[in-house]
């Protein structure tokens, strides 16, 4: 966190000053470890085993926060008889289909609760419509990409046994499921000595409960795995058992990536969701609005109002063209036919199904896994538009990519027409950033962009104008969605940039009279309100840009509500009703945050209560109530359909209702936990240029993992081009332990070549005791650390770590694994065609699949 | 010569001839909370338009800056060392050269050894000390270096003639001549910013408050409290450096809390301002000059050979 | 075996900055200043005792030395066009400032007197100028000791008690040596005596520098500076005794001995200069003496406490 979120890390340092214990779990000793109280090195890709061990420790020693668990979680819910655990099936859950390599989640349901699709999700087994038929049918089983923010809907409230004794209640299932994740197993799998593990377990449990809370901070060390989602799930289970959710000082804090990457999921650049986590409609199932919202209309919690959110969104986009008669233009929305993640797109490009590509503020030729596939995809396009601050490798791959050097691509033979458009940077335009805390902060423009550089807002606006000009007068219904758009932003300044303020106002929404709304509870399903993103509703309350507020914290209360604006409703901690006990009293004086004020008959406290503000703790909803009305007074997790935190996920995940440990796809060892080696629901990318190192390969004996350096930014376009950053980390390097250096003949400061079945790169060697050799039983595991910031352009250049990384994706979110296996040897890599031969030799010797073509 | 040459000094700016002046300002750099993010280095360069200082990998842990210099006014040092080192009593093995490869972990001892994490990583952001008795300033023959009303030491680049005297005079190896430019440069303690009541750029950028800017008196008190706190927590090897007005330079305007011996960070353990011996030097010069006169006289008076 | 208590350092990097003074500019300036300063004294003595040949040679040596020295000094500046900024202020804390204020009048006076001696014009004024130069000469020859010593460079600073004498002696040997080379032996008696006396002074002072400063004497003994210092001492000793013993009788001996002393003087300056650079380069010379000083202080404090 100190490396990649140094500014946010100031709060960790402040907590430490106040006595907090800081524990860092990371394969490497980093700048974070340097100031942590305890650094626990572990084998990359084994976090589920480690966290699972902690869950086991909590359950085994009865250290859970029982009152919290009973009332606020689904621990008491009873699961159906058909469910079989990995315990029963040696690593598989019930419902697994070998052939399609995916799960049918039907057997994971609660007892007597009918199989219920997620918000916006339909029967997964239903065929996916005609044009989808050539799409691979795989991995649509759980369709977790379609579930929006609240998780999938479960309609009926499950049966509960609040004594937690029922053998099929979630609590008992959990106990059995995690029984084998003992400290001993943790040591064997993660390479973490039992003693160290127990120190973490004790520190964590001693600092959780009524009087104290602990927080987890994570980023891509957890998520970039073929089991990434389940890692976060394990942490959620742990934090929920310990009562650390919805309370001050608790939580699981996703430290997000790019500036406003949070904003770009709220108002998404993702294929599967609409603004505010409204799922993208599916081609076959969502023929009209009524169908689309029906699933959720009946459910408990705030997703019950999805119709109002959706209609308001449609009104924001299509304005007066959206009428009750035409279903508010619901038909104008694109539909899903399967998943369309970035790596699907690359495969489509290579296979000739995707002729054009906009790359806006991204540098996949360096930043995305399997660099070669990325570049082969780019080389297969008809046209490519790159908008960036600097000439990134993605725009210049056709002349200086590694494949040009190796002869695999020839400049003259690449047909891609590349348009490079200079973009204005964040200081050259105004707008908002949404940070990791869901807080919007307004940014004013500091300078005009140089030369032809323009903001992305201007680009899209202009692009829309021009397309609409071309289509003007068309009566083809296909063109109507574009022609009917409200596309009328005022422009300002010498460059006639669209006014970002106007966009924020549109996002905030307005009522029928054009007045800005102040809360999403004002949204209506009848078309009288419009709102570009329901969770952002209120950011422009009273016609004032609330995100631009900058009142210093010392001039206001504890949570500093007047600094920026956090969605939803300027709430700083989600689910904060859980900071009070079932009767609405703070769990403790120290940790009081939001509580029930019986006198006034409302919830009150430091923050905006995340609850129906006047609903008393003892409220029992009417039978058959829906939406927020169906929430009981003790249901703090108001976005869940049952108001409870889910220890067990009966539906919505592609790879199981509970996390189980699987080895990374490329691993030097066998799975010590059970008989299934790798995530059985994993998403393979079977392409000739994506060979994977076989598990346990002696040809690729070492683990590698990739990461960032404070001094650089991601694919390097914003740091390798700047002298002040380049000089701080001027060369690509790898970090190895003294033992590995000795074993591999690597010299401090010298060169090393790192090889996988995909490619080989070279890097300078840093031999450092910060890289630890780990002992798994009687086997040593060595890890090679690789920053991934380098590429061919800029002031400092070097090989890209991503040329080494293979594609094997998490089935829920289609993310790649940052961990793999490799070989490392002293010296520089071969150049030109010799490089291909060198890698092919490794491929052949290791038996990597697919093998290199003999004809190359 | 009005101002004093060594020893504690109540009123530095006053001693330099500023009559009414603001309190002495300075830095307390608490390296125990430094996370090595180098924001200070970059902020300094951005604000002061200091040029890039070379693009080469040093192999010195994560430090590719190397040292303070004419084009590096803040420098973050990275020290990798075995954990528990600071508590040892003797000076131990030499720490010269790149980090020594630790013995390969072998045998069954490793499991218990890995208890603490075998390594400690110290980071420290170094800067000009704005000495109470600043040798650089005292030896500058052009008056280019001067003492500001805040008690800080600043080079006026429009006067400096690149004589280079300040360079070897500085006991901390801070100031240097910029190649290709020929003038001496170093930290100005952001004279232009503090004059406007702003915090220096490096301190402003520091996320962890490792660099604290303020009135020196107040900072010294704060540092004392922080040291006490760390000692209470049993932190290995914490000590203040440059805080003592009784030291060889009369105390630094920018002082530090370190976690190991100063030399481990590339700092001199007991720097002394060279002018402490100035009187003696001039005496000896005088005597030697007289001696030369004597030699001359004797040469002519001595026998006839 | 007790491990050698080598102190720590930051990757073996220097603690101090390497002086940016250029070679040969600065060591040459040190030499020329010494030569000129001592020559002015010699010239004045020759004038007073009526040795016109000696006077002429010494005056020219003083003037030329000062002139060339000034050139070297300006050339050493990284912004030579700003040379005159040296005279913006007068700072006794800065030997370079003091030296500039000595060099400026000395250069003018010695130059004038040399010009007069060569051309024969304005002899009276030339005499007066020469006397003035002689008054400043000893300062010019010795202030450079303080110039080097008033730095943090260990080998220079720790030698602050000796360097002025080394430079005074070395200036005298150079001035005497040059005169021995150019003046007929009959008139060169004072030059030989100056050479010999200077040699004694230099040898004595240099002996302390190279052997009595503890660890920081090391740079004066090792490597190139060590070789320079050793050669200089041998040449000085040989040149000094040869001149004294046989200089009067043999013009050849006089010339050779004089040249040896001039060369030795040059080498001494380069030796001292480079020893300083070496001591700044190696953190040991900074750390160890300072550590020892700290240890002594702690012991003393402990002893006081115990009392
Ligand atoms: N300076 C800087 N800051 C950045 C960025 C940048 O490029 N530079 N990028 C931004 C972006 S886009 C993002 S997404 C965030 C990412 O922020 P982080 O996730 O913090 O970034 P990484 O350095 O990729 O990975 C974090 C750590 O995970 C460790 N790690 C690797 N594999 C494993 C594993 O299997 N288990 C565990 N527990 N740890 C593992 C690595 O050693 C590394 O120290 O940072 C953001 N901030
Ligand atoms: N091996 C490995 N690979 C990884 C990761 C890893 O940990 N290991 N991390 C992954 C993660 S989390 C991420 S986020 C990706 C990042 O990978 P990318 O997003 O591909 O890389 P960036 O360098 O961040 O690209 C952002 C570009 O946007 C440009 N830019 C900045 N501001 C603007 C703007 O306002 N408008 C426009 N049009 N352009 C702008 C920048 O100049 C820069 O070139 O890398 C991923 N790849
Ligand atoms: S670069 Fe920006 S977002 Fe990242 S830590 Fe620094 S201030 Fe925060
Ligand atoms: S540290 Fe050096 S440069 Fe800075 S004031 Fe002191 S003597 Fe001058
Ligand atoms: S180099 Fe410049 S600042 Fe340094 S002493 Fe010389 S004139 Fe003064
Ligand atoms: S005070 Fe100013 S000049 Fe000095 S290091 Fe900090 S930013 Fe640079
Ligand atoms: S900015 Fe602060 S935390 Fe970062 S390196 Fe500098 S002193 Fe350390
Ligand atoms: Mo990211």
UniProtKB/TrEMBL annotation, chain B:
[4Fe-4S] cluster 2 binds at residues 44, 187, 190, 202. Pfam families: Fer4_11 (PF13247), Fer4_4 (PF12800). Residues 84-117 are annotated as: Disordered. The chain crosses the membrane at residues 281-301. [4Fe-4S] cluster 4 binds at residues 140, 160, 163, 166. Residues 25-54, 119-150, 151-180 form the 4Fe-4S ferredoxin-type domain. [4Fe-4S] cluster 3 binds at residues 128, 131, 136, 170. GO terms for cellular component: cell envelope. Residues 96-106 have a biased composition (Pro residues). PROSITE patterns: 4FE4S_FER_1, 4FE4S_FER_2. Its cofactor is [4Fe-4S] cluster. InterPro entries: 4Fe4S_Fe-S-bd, 4Fe4S_Fe_S_CS, FDH_Electron_Transfer_Unit, Formate_DH_Fe-S_su. [4Fe-4S] cluster 1 binds at residues 34, 37, 40, 206. It comes from the Bacteria. Keywords: 4Fe-4S, Iron, Iron-sulfur, Membrane, Metal-binding, Repeat, Transmembrane, Transmembrane helix. Binds 4 [4Fe-4S] clusters per subunit. The keyword Iron-sulfur applies. SUPFAM superfamilies: 4Fe-4S ferredoxins. It is found in: Cell envelope. PANTHER family: FORMATE DEHYDROGENASE, NITRATE-INDUCIBLE, IRON-SULFUR SUBUNIT (PTHR43545). This is 4Fe-4S dicluster domain-containing protein. It comes from Phycicoccus endophyticus.
Automatic annotation (TrEMBL), chain C:
Keywords: Cell membrane, Membrane, Transmembrane, Transmembrane helix. Signal peptide: none annotated. It is found in: Cell membrane. Pfam families: NrfD. The chain crosses the membrane at residues 28-48, 60-78, 98-122, 134-153, 165-184. The keyword Nucleotide-binding does not apply. InterPro entries: Electron_transfer_protein, NrfD-like. This is Polysulfide reductase NrfD. It comes from Phycicoccus endophyticus. The lineage of its organism: Bacteria, Bacillati, Actinomycetota, Actinomycetes, Micrococcales.
């Amino acid at each position: 966190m100190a490396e990649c979120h140094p500014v946010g890390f100031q709060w960790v340092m402040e907590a430490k000053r106040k006595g907090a214990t800081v524990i860092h779990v990371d394969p490497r000793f980093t700048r974070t470890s340097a100031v942590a109280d305890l650094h626990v090195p572990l084998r990359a890709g084994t976090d589920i085993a480690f966290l699972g061990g902690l869950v086991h420790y909590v359950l085994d020693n009865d250290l859970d926060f029982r009152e919290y668990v009973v009332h606020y979680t689904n621990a008491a819910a009873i699961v159906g008889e058909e469910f079989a655990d990995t315990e029963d099936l040696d690593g598989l859950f019930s419902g697994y289909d070998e052939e399609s390599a995916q799960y049918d989640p039907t057997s994971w349901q609660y007892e007597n609760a009918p199989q219920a699709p997620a918000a916006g999700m339909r029967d997964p087994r239903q065929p996916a419509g005609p044009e989808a038929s050539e799409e691979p049918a795989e991995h649509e089983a759980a369709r977790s990409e379609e579930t929006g923010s609240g998780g999938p809907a479960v309609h009926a409230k499950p049966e509960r046994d609040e004594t937690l004794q029922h053998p099929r209640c979630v609590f008992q299932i959990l106990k059995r499921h995690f029984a084998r994740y003992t400290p001993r197993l943790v040591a064997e799998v993660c390479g973490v000595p039992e003693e160290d593990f127990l120190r973490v377990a004790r520190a964590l449990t001693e600092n959780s409960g009524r009087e104290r809370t602990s927080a987890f901070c994570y980023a891509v060390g957890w998520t970039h795995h073929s089991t990434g989602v389940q890692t976060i799930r394990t942490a959620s289970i742990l934090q929920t058992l310990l009562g650390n959710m919805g309370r001050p000082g608790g939580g699981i804090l996703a430290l997000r990536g790019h500036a406003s990457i949070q904003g770009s999921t709220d108002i998404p650049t993702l294929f599967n969701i609409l603004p505010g986590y409204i799922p993208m409609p599916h081609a076959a199932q969502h023929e009209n609005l009524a169908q689309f919202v029906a699933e959720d209309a009946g459910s408990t919690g705030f997703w019950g109002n999805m119709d109002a959110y959706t209609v308001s969104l449609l009104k924001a986009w299509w304005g007066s063209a959206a009428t009750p008669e035409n279903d508010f233009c619901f038909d104008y929305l694109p539909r899903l036919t399967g998943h369309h993640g970035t790596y699907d797109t690359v495969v489509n490009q290579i296979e000739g199904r995707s002729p054009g590509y906009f790359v806006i503020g991204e540098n996949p030729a360096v930043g995305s896994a399997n660099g070669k596939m990325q570049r082969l995809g780019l080389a297969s396009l008809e046209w490519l538009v790159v908008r960036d601050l600097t000439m990134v490798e993605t725009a210049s791959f056709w002349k200086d990519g590694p494949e040009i050097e190796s002869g695999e691509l020839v400049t003259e033979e690449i047909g891609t027409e590349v348009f490079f458009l200079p973009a204005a940077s964040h200081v050259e335009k105004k707008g908002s950033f949404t940070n990791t805390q869901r807080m919007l902060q307004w940014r004013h423009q500091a300078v005009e962009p140089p030369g032809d550089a323009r903001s992305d807002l201007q680009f899209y606006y202009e692009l829309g104008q021009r397309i609409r000009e071309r289509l003007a007068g068309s009566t083809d219904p296909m063109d109507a969605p574009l022609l009917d758009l409200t596309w009328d932003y005022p422009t300002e300044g010498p460059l006639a940039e669209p006014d970002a303020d106007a966009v924020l106002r549109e996002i905030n929404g307005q009522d029928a009279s054009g007045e800005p709304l102040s809360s999403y509870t004002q949204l209506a399903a009848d078309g009288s309100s419009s709102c570009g993103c329901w969770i952002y509703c209120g950011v422009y309350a009273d016609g004032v840009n609330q995100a631009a507020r900058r009142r210093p914290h010392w001039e206001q209360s504890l949570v500093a509500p007047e600094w920026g604006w956090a969605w939803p409703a300027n709430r700083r901690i989600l689910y904060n009703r859980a900071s009070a006990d079932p009767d609405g009293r703070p769990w403790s004086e120290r940790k009081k945050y939001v509580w029930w004020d019986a006198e006034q008959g409302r919830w009150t406290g430091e923050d905006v209560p995340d609850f129906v503000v006047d609903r008393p703790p003892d409220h029992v909803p009417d039978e058959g109530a829906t939406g927020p009305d169906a929430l009981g007074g003790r249901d703090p997790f108001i976005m869940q359909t049952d108001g409870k935190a889910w220890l067990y996920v009966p539906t919505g995940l592609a790879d199981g209702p509970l996390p189980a440990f699987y080895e990374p796809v490329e691993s030097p060892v066998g799975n010590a936990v059970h008989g299934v080696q790798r995530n059985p629901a994993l998403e393979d990318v079977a392409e000739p240029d994506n060979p994977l190192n076989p598990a346990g390969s002696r040809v690729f004996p070492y683990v590698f993992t990739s990461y960032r350096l404070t001094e650089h930014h991601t694919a390097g376009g914003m740091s390798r081009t700047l002298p002040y950053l380049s000089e701080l980390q001027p060369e690509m390097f790898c970090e190895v332990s003294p033992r590995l250096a000795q074993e591999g003949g690597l010299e401090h400061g010298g060169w090393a070549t790192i090889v996988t079945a995909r490619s080989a790169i070279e890097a300078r060697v840093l031999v450092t005791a910060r890289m630890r050799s780990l002992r798994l039983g009687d086997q040593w595991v060595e890890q090679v650390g690789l920053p991934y910031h380098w590429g061919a352009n800029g002031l400092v250049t070097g090989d890209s770590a991503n040329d080494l990384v293979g594609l094997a994706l998490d089935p829920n979110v289609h993310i790649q694994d940052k961990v793999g296996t490799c070989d490392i040897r002293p010296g520089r890599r071969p150049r030109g065609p010799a490089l291909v031969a060198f890698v092919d030799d490794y491929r052949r010797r290791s038996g990597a699949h697919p093998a290199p073509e003999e004809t190359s | 010569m009005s101002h004093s040459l060594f020893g504690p000094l109540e009123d530095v700016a006053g001693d330099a001839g500023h009559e009414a002046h603001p309190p002495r300002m300075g830095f307390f750099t608490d390296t125990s909370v430094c996370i090595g993010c180098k924001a200070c280095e970059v902020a300094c360069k951005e604000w002061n338009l200091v040029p890039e200082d070379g693009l080469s990998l040093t192999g010195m842990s994560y430090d590719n800056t190397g040292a303070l210099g004419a084009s590096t006014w803040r420098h973050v040092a990275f020290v990798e060392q075995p954990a528990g080192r600071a508590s040892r009593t003797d000076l131990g093995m030499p720490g010269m050269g790149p980090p020594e490869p630790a013995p390969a972990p072998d045998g069954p001892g490793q499991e218990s050894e890995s208890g603490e994490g075998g390594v400690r990583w110290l980071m420290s952001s170094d800067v000009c000390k704005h000495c109470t008795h600043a040798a650089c300033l005292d030896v500058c023959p052009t008056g280019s270096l001067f003492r500001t009303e805040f008690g800080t030491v600043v080079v006026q680049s429009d006067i400096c003639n690149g004589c280079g005297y300040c360079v070897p005079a500085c006991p901390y190896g801070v100031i240097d001549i910029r190649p290709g430019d020929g003038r001496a440069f170093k930290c100005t303690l952001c004279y232009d910013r503090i004059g406007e009541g702003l915090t220096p750029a490096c301190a402003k950028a520091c996320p962890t408050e490792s660099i604290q800017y303020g009135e020196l008196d107040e900072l010294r008190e704060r540092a004392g409290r922080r040291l006490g706190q760390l000692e209470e927590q049993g932190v290995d090897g914490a000590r203040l450096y440059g805080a003592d007005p009784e030291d060889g330079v009369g105390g630094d305007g920018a002082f530090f809390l370190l976690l190991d011996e100063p030399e481990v960070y590339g700092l001199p353990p007991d720097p002394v301002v060279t002018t402490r011996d100035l009187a003696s030097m001039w005496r000896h010069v005088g005597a030697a000059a007289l001696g030369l006169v004597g030699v001359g006289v004797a040469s002519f008076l001595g026998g006839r050979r | 075996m007790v491990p050698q208590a080598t102190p720590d350092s930051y990757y073996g990097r220097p603690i101090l900055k390497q002086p940016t003074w250029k070679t040969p500019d600065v060591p040459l300036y040190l030499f020329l200043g010494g030569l000129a300063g001592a020559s002015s004294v010699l010239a004045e003595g020759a004038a007073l005792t009526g040795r016109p040949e000696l006077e002429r040679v010494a005056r020219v040596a003083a003037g030329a030395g000062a002139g060339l020295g000034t050139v070297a000094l300006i050339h050493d500046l990284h912004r030579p066009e700003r040379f005159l900024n040296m005279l913006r202020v007068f700072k006794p804390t800065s030997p370079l400032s003091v030296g500039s204020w000595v060099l400026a009048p000395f250069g003018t006076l010695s130059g004038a007197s040399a010009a007069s001696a060569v051309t024969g014009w304005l002899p009276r004024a030339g005499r007066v100028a020469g006397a003035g130069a002689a008054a400043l000469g000893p300062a010019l020859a010795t202030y450079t000791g303080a110039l080097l010593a008033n730095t943090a460079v260990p080998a220079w600073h720790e030698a602050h008690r000796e360097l002025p004498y080394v430079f005074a002696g070395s200036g005298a040997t150079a001035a005497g040596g040059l005169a021995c080379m150019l003046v007929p032996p009959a008139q060169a008696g004072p030059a030989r005596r100056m050479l010999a006396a200077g040699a004694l002074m230099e040898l004595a002072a240099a002996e302390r520098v190279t052997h009595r400063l503890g660890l920081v004497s090391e740079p004066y003994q090792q490597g190139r500076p060590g070789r320079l210092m050793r050669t200089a001492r041998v040449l000085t000793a040989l040149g000094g005794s040869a001149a004294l013993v046989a200089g009067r009788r043999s013009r050849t001996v006089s010339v050779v001995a004089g040249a040896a002393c001039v060369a030795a003087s040059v080498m001494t300056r380069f030796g001292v200069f480079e020893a300083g650079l070496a001591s700044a380069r190696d953190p040991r010379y900074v750390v160890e003496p300072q550590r020892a000083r700290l240890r002594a202080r702690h012991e003393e404090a402990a002893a006081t406490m115990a009392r």
